[in-house]
Every structure is written in structure tokens, then in C-alpha cells.
Amino acid sequence: MSDDRQKKAFPVSWDQFHRDARALAWRLAGAGPFEGIVCITRGGLVPAAIVARELGLRMIETVCIASYHDYTQQGEMQVLKPISGAVTAAVGEGGRGLLVVDDLVDTGKTARLVRDMLPAAHFATVYAKPLGRPLIDTFITEVSQDTWIYFPWDMGLSFQPPIRDGAA
């Protein structure tokens, strides 16, 4: 979604994100048992670490997908690293027993792509927008589609571009 359509800002502090990710783990504790986590990078890394700790999960895998290429425009989906065959072989058919974690489901494009890879997995996000919400089994907070969430790793006192993009 382009910046001109984003009307609302929702800044999330580290403390708030940690509380929300722990609330997600609490909610997921009754949805398992899970044999492992697949986190969708990059946004799913932090909540997956918190959920893994809280649920005592040790098998953590990543699926690396690029969709936001400039922080404001969701572009073509690109799988940079698929889910390891060793992980999918260790669980039930279609990913049964796996928990897929991401920070946010927005339009649902990323979730749909991963859901095609792991149709029987349980999908969880900390935040959900209406277009993507039907693809998620568990989430904590719903925000409107026209809200842009500023995650703590994107902010200092103001937005901080990644070092790769020339930040000092």
C-alpha cells in the first residue's frame, strides 16, 4: 500500500511489542502442541524468538521472503530461502505441528505464499489487518487496513533508514 493511502500511524515501542508477543505466546499455549516454529523473515524473527522461549520450542526455521522493497510499497513476492526439507520431514504432512510466526499480516500475500507451502501449519501474527486476517489462525491486535505500523526496529527518536541505505 502506498504512503499516500496510509492515513494512520501506529508506533510500537519495544516494551509494547514484547508484551504483545508474550500475549501471542500465551494465546498459542492452548493451541498446540507445536514441534517447531517457522518464522517469516525479517519481521517474524523477533516475535518468533519470544514465542519460542515462552513455549519451550527449540526447532526454529526461517522462510525468507521479500515483499516490501522500500518500506512503503509492497511489491513482487520473492522467496529468498525456502523452508528446509529437514524441518518439513520432521513434522506432519503439510506442516502439521509447525507454528508459522510473523509480526504482521497486511494484505495476506506473504501469508498466502507460506500457507501454500505449509497448508496444515498454524499461522500466528502479533498484528493483523482486515485483508490478511482470514489467513491467520491466531493474532493479538487488529488494526485498520489504512494504518502503518512502525515497529521498534524501524525507529529511533525518528524513523531510521537501514545502514545499507546510507544511514550514519
UniProtKB/TrEMBL annotation:
Assembly with partners or alone: Homotetramer.
Residues the entry annotates as binding 5-phospho-alpha-D-ribose 1-diphosphate: R42, G43, D102, D103, L104, V105, D106, T107, G108, K109, T110
Stated name of the protein: Xanthine-guanine phosphoribosyltransferase
One term of GO molecular function: magnesium ion binding
Gene of this entry: gpt
Span of the signal peptide: none
Functional description taken from the UniProt entry: Purine salvage pathway enzyme that catalyzes the transfer of the ribosyl-5-phosphate group from 5-phospho-alpha-D-ribose 1-diphosphate (PRPP) to the N9 position of the 6-oxopurines guanine and xanthine to form the corresponding ribonucleotides GMP (guanosine 5'-monophosphate) and XMP (xanthosine 5'-monophosphate), with the release of PPi. To a lesser extent, also acts on hypoxanthine.
Keyword check for Glycosyltransferase: yes
Chief site of localization: membrane
Membrane topology, record value: Peripheral membrane protein
GO CC, any one term: plasma membrane
Enzyme class: transferase
Residue numbers binding GMP: D106, T107, G108, K109, T110, W148, I149
Keyword Membrane: yes
Family named by the database record: Belongs to the purine/pyrimidine phosphoribosyltransferase family. XGPT subfamily.
UniProt organism field: Ancylobacter dichloromethanicus
Record EC number: 2.4.2.22
CDD domains for this protein: PRTases_typeI (cd06223)
